[in-house]
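One-letter codes give the sequence; the integers encode the fold. A sample entry reads:
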Amino acid sequence: MASKYTQRVSIFRCPKCHHHVPLQQKRRSIHTSNLKRASMAASPIDPNNLPPPDPSHGRVVPASPSYFTGRPDSTDNFLKLQALLRRYQTLPVVPPGQAPRVAWRTVTQYRLLVGEPVKAAKYHRVLEILQRLNRIHPTVMPSSLRQAMQIYKRDVDPYAVNRKPAIIDEDGKASAVGRRKASSAKVYLVQGEGRVLVNGKSLNTAFGRVHDRESALWALKATGRMDKYNVWALVKGGGTTGQAEAITLGVARALMVFEPALKPALRRAGCVTRDPRRVERKKPGHVKARKMPTWVKR
């Protein structure tokens, strides 16, 4: 039978005489049995008898998933739209050309709404999701989805405005207004032999450049109606190029009053849509709108 105590011999160095003296130490070896291990283990936990949790030790979970971003509104709106798209993406949709026309807010208007500097690329992704949700068939679109999309719509819907239809008056003439840059033209069109007056002057007197003369009557030339209508235009503002292109738009709109079937041909000629381009403003420190001064090393 093994002894309960075992001896171990070690070498001890005396601090006074610096001699090595053997030293016997006694070490007790512990023998554990299964019974002792069972008495040392923790008792099992009963989940039904747990003490109630202490509220002071809990962690508050924010309601917004983007709470720690500092500006959570735009991110929350984007995540909400993504969740709606995943939820309703299986609903029947209408073809893209038959979807209801909706005027969405511009990125500037959305920035003012949420009060955050939203990037244009991020808002473009928002508009893509909105256009996909707008294609859901109106008969099965949920009311919650309509409410979620309402905040992205403009306050005034331009597509809901009913324009006053242009008519031919008792004198047999049709009138229309055309604009380009800072120019505005009031155009009267009447059937005739092809005479043109701009502010009471002939076309050659009003516009010295050949390009401006051709541009003013481009709508009639593109449809082959040069010698079938007389044009009387009152134009103001801007320069000669802006005035000539404003007359182009006014002539095209007045021509569609006489012959609505010419609209596809006028659209292909680029005479139906108003050109929104303007000259970009000059910036401080620039020579022009974007041109910088020549860099000189010395």
Notes: The chain has ten helices and seven strands.
